[in-house]
Amino acid sequence: MKYYTIFFLLLLFTSCYNVERNCADFKTGKFEFNYKLDGEDKTGTFIRTDDFSVDYFDNKIDSSSVRWINDCEFVLKKLNPKSISEDDAIHFKILTTTDSSYTFEYKLAIKKPSQKLRVEKGTAYKIN
């Protein structure tokens, strides 16, 4: 009986925890993120408006349209894809926020039957 009481109290306290998400603060602005390319750490920058995102990474510039699903989820689709794989839309979900950053996960917006669904995480820092 003692173990059931302890389990119940732990369940009660953990269910009250609520992750803070002020996603509207990160809908637009200039952001920075870190990524690895061929084992080398790199930093990329992107500027996002309500409708577009311009990415600057690895000495390249890329543009995407932004479609917001709600304050914490959006879909990016490249405007000028150079290959079939770049034509796929990517679904982003903001998981947590702080005063200057947000943690997100992303995956293909439409799962391909021949591929395993891959979900990646990252953190973006607001720089303006």
Automatic annotation (TrEMBL):
Q: What is this protein called?
A: DNA topoisomerase IV
